[in-house]
Amino acid sequence: MKRALSLCCLLFSLMSVRVSAAGDHTVTLNGMLERICGAGASDKFELVVDGSLAENGKDVFIISSSGGRPCIKGNSVLSVATGINWYLNHTARINLTWNRLNTDLSGTYLPLPQKEEKHVCSADYRYYLNYCTFSYSMAFWSWERWEKELDWMALHGINMPLMLVGMDVVWKNILTELGYSASEIADFVAGPGFQAWWLMNNLEGWGGPNPDWWYTRQEELSRKIVARMDELGMTPVLPGYSGMVPNNINAKKGWNAADPGKWCQFRRPAFLLPTDEHFPKMAALYYKHLGELMGTSSYYSMDPFHEGGNTSDVDLKSAYTAILNEMSKVNADAKWVIQSWNENPRAECLRVVPEGRLVVLDLFSDGLPKWQRGYNGHEIVYCMLHNFGGRVGMHGRLSKTIDGYYDALLTLPRQIKGVGATPEGIETNPVLYDCLFELPWRDSCTADEWLPEYVKARYGTDGNAYAEVAWSLLERSVYGCPTAQQGTSEPVICARPALDVNSVSTWSTSRIYYDKEDVIRAAALMLKAAEELDGDNFRYDLVDIVRQAVTDHANGLLARMRVAYESDDKREFGKLKKHFLKLILDQDRLLSTTPAFMLGRCTDMARKLTDEVPGRSSADKDWLEWNARTQVTVWGNKEAADDGGLHDYSNREWGGLLKDFHYIRWKTYLDALQRGEEQPDWFDLEEAWTEDFSYVYTDAPEGDAVKVARKMFHRYFPDADVRTLF
Q: Where are the alpha helices (DSSP H) in 460-569?
């Protein structure tokens, strides 16, 4: 981010700076250490920032020991932070991840590295986030939660995060200057659970109206996030201007904007034609208000005509030229960051933008790589799009992601400039992200080499044979997806009820691509490992693995129910119905032992946002919770949910949600089927739940995770025998 630098900061970038001395680096790194490792943690390390350590412009960190303490050196604050995380994982066996974002090192002996270890980064760009992540995972985050995520980013070496928080404020200020009324602004700006799709030019207003206090709160939060990104050495990717305007702009202002049509039955914002005289004026107004809140950047994200927008009335060459020109007025050296998704980037874009000015995020490199096409010589970031919709489920392509990255580097060394994580939702499957962001700091790697070391760090042990074999089974099953399916194999218990469920959401599948027995065996091994292992990471993984085994078991139960129904075996159907419904409630109980798997964690977080602003009413809390509930169930209004296919897109296996939403839906269906009655209108039943705030969910766990997991496992898999694996 281009901001005026003080002479002190400039000197720091040109000479070796010991963190034990006073200065910005001291404040930054010590502050991060104290946040993630507890009070006094900074005294346990010697940290050195030395710009001369960079090699041919590449980031470097070195791990050694000095004065009886671990010593981490790096060419920048971010490199040192990455080195700290490497040391914690590979030497101290401390894995900090979403389910355990900090630890307490007081009273902990930190082992000294046996020899000096040096790592040079092959990736200039380490990109993070997807527009969708800001809604599916981050919509209701407080500054406290954001602060932890920013530290997580630093520990993983991320230097190029997408930044959207505060864009509602930017657009409110733009439209106010254009003479829009408060009600007109409310019709345009989406609510917190749906702003991602508004900013991708897919819809207007859904989830709103946003009250005035919300904008005040967002402005303060945005400034804090950007300031911390700067402090940690990250350059945020800001949303640039690509022509979006309210779809009433022609009637309101007499401008010439094209109608891109609908997205999943939502009316899209209009696209201001580049030939209209107001295009440069609108762009200037946009960048003025963006700059007042977030400053300027070296990177701007723009994805015009995202997911099928109608371009029949648009001269694409002129449009891309105008977009590039207006960005260049803000920063002549700025790079346009564009997602490779569906039709984008179109051929006209690749031809119009000069080499060196476009960074293409190959968004789904792990599942559907397109980098081999070369993108007309432009810079490419190899990305992992592991999660769709924020759904819960063990899923990934561990070996394929590793091998694909090194293959891309070898094949297109001039163009592959970075690595990126572009999930629609986060806080699941942390193994994939820990691995991905280590790859650029290694010369080579295989899953078989990396995974055993990860297990040791994950559980803070020098080795546990049961856990290591369990993870090898997971690597070849859930983490060995051979297809380009969009996210986890979806849990049938989260589907709109039917006897032949093929998917829960419109664009994914419930088909299981692996041997379910591998997951059952992994769960059995983890329960055996529980005799020795404990801790937040272990308990999270144990619950997740048992949950996955039980979820897969539900597929078989549903198939058997269908056979019983079609053969008119009423007794068998009744027995299987009872088992199926009990499984949903059992799964709910298991997930309710762990806050990370509870609906209340999300809804409680949403409701508590009002505590940041005095005088907020219960209506404000209900509005925020409605956004959260709607997102993970019907998603949109009736037309969008049913005809647009959005219902259950963001389905979640969460404690509380299974019991009070999915169980009710399945029981209603199976009862009616058994009695030969007509089925209800699902949307009406679902919408009623999104608007019922009579029960307030919390994230207070219920029961002991290990005990409940053990009881659940033996109930559903009584014949599993861990001894057969040794």
A: 465-476, 516-529, 536-566
The helices-and-strands tally (H runs, E runs) of the chain is 27, 18
Over range 89-107, report the average pLDDT.
96
Residue 695, judged by CB atoms within 10 A of its CB (0-12, 13-18, 19+), counts as exposed
Task: Compute the distance between CA of residue 317 and CA of residue 350 in angstroms, rounded to an integer.
Answer: 10
SS3 342: coil
pLDDT attached to residue 722: 67
Residue-wise pLDDT for 150-202, tens only, equals 999 999 999 999 999 999 999 999 999 999 999 999 999 999 999 999 999 99
Contacts of 56 (CB under 8 A, 6+ apart): none
User: 8 falls in which pLDDT band (50, 70, 90)?
Assistant: very low
Section 465-472 average pLDDT: 97
Residue from 504, 539, 526, 516 nearest 653 by CA: 504
- 635 in Cβ contact with 641 (< 8 Å): yes
> Which helix (H) or strand (E) element contains residue 63?
strand 60-66
Measured between alpha carbons, how far is 362 from 558 in angstroms, rounded to an integer? 38
What pLDDT shows up at residue 384?
98
Alpha-carbon separation of residue 502 from 131, 195, 311, 499, 651 (angstroms): 28, 29, 34, 9, 14
pLDDT in tens, 607-642: 999 998 888 889 999 999 999 999 999 999 999 999
Altogether, the residues listed in the chain come to a count of: 726
Q: What share of the chain is helix, strand, coil (3-state, %, to 5)?
A: 50, 10, 40
Return the axis-axis angle of helices 447-459 and 398-411, rounded to nearest 10°.
130
Judge contact between 96 and 88, C-beta under 8 A: yes
Is the pLDDT at 726 greater than 90, yes or no?
Answer: no
Give the DSSP H/E element, type plus range, for residue 712.
Answer: helix 705-716
Residues 6+ positions from 628 with CB-CB distance below 8 Å? 139, 140, 193, 602, 603, 606
Per-residue pLDDT at 1 exceeds 70: no
Sign of the torsion formed by the C-alpha atoms of 222, 227, 230 and 231: negative
Dist CA 292 CA 500 (whole Å): 54
pLDDT in tens, 516-561: 999 999 999 999 999 999 999 999 999 999 999 999 999 999 999 9
Backbone angles phi, psi at 438, to 5 degrees: -85, -25
- Judge if pTM exceeds 0.90: yes
Q: Where are the beta strands (DSSP E) in 414-485?
A: 416-421
Q: Between residues 120 and 723, which one has the greater pLDDT?
A: 120
Q: Which two tokens stand for residue 248?
A: 């009433």
Which two tokens mark 409? 């580097």
Round to whole Å and give the CA distance between 77 and 308: 41
Rounded distance between C-alpha atoms, residue 272 and residue 260, angstroms: 10
- Check: CB of residue 708 under 8 Å from CB of residue 590: yes
Q: Residue 310 belongs to what H/E stretch?
A: none
**Coil/strand/helix, residue 100:** strand
Q: Using CA atoms, how far apart are residues 122 and 119, in angstroms rounded to an integer?
A: 10
Beta-sheet pairing, 69-74 with 60-66: antiparallel
